[in-house]
Structure formats: structure tokens, C-alpha cells
Amino acid sequence: MLKIGDKAPDFTILNQDEESVSLSDFKGRQVIIWFFPKANTPGWTNQGIGFRDELEKFNNLDISIIGVSADSPKKQKKFVDKYNFNYPMLCDESHKMLENYGVWGLKKFMGREYMGISRVTYILDTDHCIKEVYEKVNTKTHACDILESI
User: Fold this and answer.
1) Residues 71/46, Cβ–Cβ less than 8 Å
2) Which segments of 84-123 does DSSP mark as H helices, in order?
3) Mean per-residue pLDDT for 116-140?
4) Strands 112-117 and 89-91
5) Alpha-carbon torsion 127, 95, 37, 55, what sign?
6) Contacts of 81 (CB under 8 A, 6+ apart)
7) How far apart are the first and last CA of the chain?
């Protein structure tokens, strides 16, 4: 996992519309990158809706929001359309970005081990260095919790 002060790794991956998106596309802007295990699951939907509903406040602070999972663009597109998400949802099917950001790894649930995505949110400063790390989030209030802390 990345730590405060680390330079965020650049990436170029597809979004829900199968367009390439790079971290460098957000040059000079603060960026919130939130990672979620799977589209259309209740907790992650709540988290995404929170960012959607608060997007204007983040934009007023010159902060961009990016959601990332290992879902395909087709699956991500259905998720975006169903909930009217108004920010990019990126698709890292190769897991390369997820690994570079330290969010892809061994997980345990009910005695079962599997590879998956950890629920982590990074806030990047305008130079794209890690400004804040959220490892434990309340999916229902996460966007508002971040707004209260900045």
C-alpha cells in the first residue's frame, strides 16, 4: 500500500466508455482515487453514490474523483448508467494499476482466501503525491467524511 508522501504511480487504463484515462490527464488537480472490489454490489454502490451526490462540492475544491475496480468496461458501463455516476470509473482487468497502488492482494473472508481488491481511498495533491490514505471507510458516508476532513 502507498503511504503519505509517496508519488502516485501513473497509469493508463480504460474507463467505462473504453476510453484511455491516465493520471497525467489530471495534471495540476487534486485527485481522489477510490478502489472497490466489484460493480453493482451494495456497499460499493453506496460509496459511488456518495461521490456522485457530492461531486459539485469536490469540483468546487478543484478535486477530481476516480473509481477503480477490476471489472470490464462493459460491466462498469452498466454500473455507471444504472446509478448515473458522473465521474470516471476505471477498469483494471490486468490488475497492474491495482498492484502498483498496493490494493490487489490476498484477502480472507469466512475462512476462505482469495485474491481481491482492498477497500482503499487515496487523496492525491496537485503534484499527485499521496496526501491522505483511507484504509477503513464507511461506504454510506465516505464522500462526506472526506469533505469534512479537508
Assistant:
1) no
2) 96-100
3) 94
4) unpaired
5) positive
6) none
7) 22
C-alpha cell at 47: 460509496
In whole angstroms, what is the distance from residue 85 CA to residue 74 CA? 15
| Cell digits of residue 124 | 492525491
The three three-digit cell numbers of residue 96, written as one number: 497492474
Kindly tell me if the per-residue pLDDT of 35 is higher than 90: yes
What is the distance between the alpha carbons of residues 54 and 42, in angstroms, rounded to a whole number?
Answer: 18
pLDDT tens for each residue of 60-101: 999 999 999 999 999 999 999 999 999 999 999 999 999 999
pLDDT at 136: 86
Query: Using CA atoms, how far apart are residues 8 and 132, in angstroms rounded to an integer?
Result: 12
Judge residue 115's burial from the number of C-beta atoms within 10 Å of its C-beta, 0-12 exposed, 13-18 middle, 19 or more buried. exposed
